Amino acid sequence: MNDLTKESKPLASVRALLAGSIDYAGLFPPSQLSMTEAAMNYSKYQAGDHGWMLGRFVVPVARLDELREAAVRFVESETQPWRISALAAEDIYDTIKRINSFNERNSGAFHIDSLEVKANTVSKIENTVDALPEGINTFFEIGLSQNFAELVATLAIDRQHAKIRTGGVRPDEFPKSRDIIRFVRTCLAGNVPFKATAGLHHPIRCYSPLTYAEEGPSGTMHGFLNMFLMTGFARESYKPDTLEQLMEEEFAEVFKFNESGVTWRDTNELSVWQLERLRKLGIQSFGSCSFEEPVEDLKALGLL
To answer: pTM of the full predicted structure?
Structure first.
């Protein structure tokens, strides 16, 4: 899969595609770690060889003080504040108040620069936008219901970001490939950057256990390389049928990375510049309760 597997550092194309791509959500299922365990992991990952892939630490706004208490001993030795993505509570005004207070009290140690909000109505989006302070990138988790296009249009008008849930701990929580493609193409048409969350533990689509329980359910999981590259080819106006084939691709060997870009099935190519653009204007990151699983899988593919 990697043309230069002996290289000690990732190819330029791999870095362009995956830099800062994994928002660490170790507090959430299926990992569901304690705050201390999750904070310890995040600190370790930041200092590790693959810290360049690490994005924000994801935490509910109601647990911000708990995070500060658990992580203060880790951040004391670090030169940059932890970047935090806060999950909003139902009361958006209380959420904003908590964020502002937290940032003021913890300047230099932590910085909340991202907010994630569930919103299935236009009014929820508009009311939230009216309350937002400057400097906060907000991702609105929207469903794929009948008013989906209207919600994306509202995000486009207000210059906000979208969020899609791409999995869960049950097979029925994974959306169909065609529905993910519809989400991506609609967001791209409206110039709405987005992130994904849940179910993207592995780089390539596969059938895998959905939890860490011995007798837990298994199911087909979308791959994050499939997802990111599908976004790139969608930006290049590839047809939905082709994008669906890419989303459902299960053979890692048909993706070939080199210093200049990546090809899928030899004839479909994205340059490093195009990979950088899809990250800037398309998919921003994906939330994962595991950082180690994606890293280990990428190592096995020869990409790290």
So the answer is: 0.94
